[in-house]
Amino acid sequence: MMGVLNHLSTLLLLSLLPPALSHVVENFSVVPQCKTFFLEGTTPNLPGILVGGTVQNQSRYKPICQKYNNMYRFATLYDTTNKIPVFSAYTFTGKVVGRPKSPGLESIDVEEMKTQHGAKLINNSRDIRVIHQAVDADYNATVTNMILERGHLFPCSHTPDDDTMASTFTLTNVVPQERGFNRGRWCRVEQNVKKTLLEKCKDNKTKAYVVTGAVPSNNNTLNNRVNIPALLWTAFCCYNNNTSNWTVGAYWGRTKTTLGKH
Ligand SMILES: *[C@@H]1O[C@H](CO)[C@@H](O)[C@H](O)[C@H]1NC(C)=O
Ligand SMILES: *[C@@H]1O[C@H](CO)[C@@H](O)[C@H](O)[C@H]1NC(C)=O
Ligand SMILES: *[C@@H]1O[C@H](CO)[C@@H](O)[C@H](O)[C@H]1NC(C)=O
Ligand SMILES: *[C@@H]1O[C@H](CO)[C@@H](O)[C@H](O)[C@H]1NC(C)=O
Ligand SMILES: *[C@@H]1O[C@H](CO)[C@@H](O)[C@H](O)[C@H]1NC(C)=O
Ligand SMILES: *[C@@H]1O[C@H](CO)[C@@H](O)[C@H](O)[C@H]1NC(C)=O
Ligand SMILES: *[C@@H]1O[C@H](CO)[C@@H](O)[C@H](O)[C@H]1NC(C)=O
Ligand SMILES: *[C@@H]1O[C@H](CO)[C@@H](O)[C@H](O)[C@H]1NC(C)=O
Question: What is the CATH number of domain 2-254?
Fold first, then answer.
């Protein structure tokens, strides 16, 4: 258990750094690997935000192809006004065994850490650094009577391997969540989705598509800056080639946003 906690605190420390070479792109089609996180490469339609794969307000919403350790891991649409993601999209495969084991976070070499600090950040990744700098201090603020945590849209429990798990610890994948909701109801939603996908989506292998998003609240912010979302939603689907059946499903949960007792 302590091992796990140590591991997690290392991951939290890493989350203070920009993710290595993640790309802010014009739309998700620009990076071919980024499209693979959506069923048939089709992004969700969110009126006013993302329609037919086109970002409606490009100065506000930033598509990010989340890259870590030289591989694209998932895709995020980030809202720079509310300073939280609109959604993160990823494929679910269950735990993948037999991949080369990652060296472990403690042993990520110095060269790469330098890169993560921004020495070699390329193209639009400067945007990501700015996003991080703006938001990180906010998460350190305390909110009276409510314990807020960084709630992951792409949760650790749905990742196939250690590197992908590490990649989810980025501020562009988290929203402020009240602790009870994060560790209670939403955690159970994540567990139920995982159970369903493992049961229904396994043919010769397991492959499902998941999109998880946040709906911002009207005027509920952390530190007057980071929106504390009003609800979270998640939608998933897979085709099982053995049973010739599609499995689709969705959940949503109203978060606890009112300041007060928890
Ligand atoms: C995505 O961006 C590319 C490159 O700018 C552009 O050619 C393409 O039309 C865009 N696709 C959509 C759906 O907006
Ligand atoms: C686009 O978003 C910016 C904030 O980033 C806002 O100032 C502007 O009014 C928005 N444009 C439209 C057409 O909604
Ligand atoms: C950086 O941007 C340039 C031009 O916009 C492009 O040609 C190049 O491929 C990009 N590099 C990466 C690694 O995306
Ligand atoms: C799916 O079918 C293949 C043969 O077509 C079989 O080997 C495999 O065990 C089946 N998997 C499941 C989960 O039923
Ligand atoms: C939003 O909340 C802030 C701080 O609680 C308050 O000062 C402001 O008047 C509120 N704005 C609206 C539109 O409700
Ligand atoms: C699905 O199953 C059929 C036969 O049952 C096979 O021919 C086909 O290659 C399979 N497709 C995939 C993607 O595995
Ligand atoms: C499972 O994989 C085998 C070997 O790749 C293939 O022949 C078979 O069609 C697959 N079955 C299904 C149901 O996808
Ligand atoms: C496909 O799903 C339907 C409805 O859940 C079920 O009745 C049927 O048995 C499934 N087909 C197979 C081949 O498992």
Answer: 3.40.570
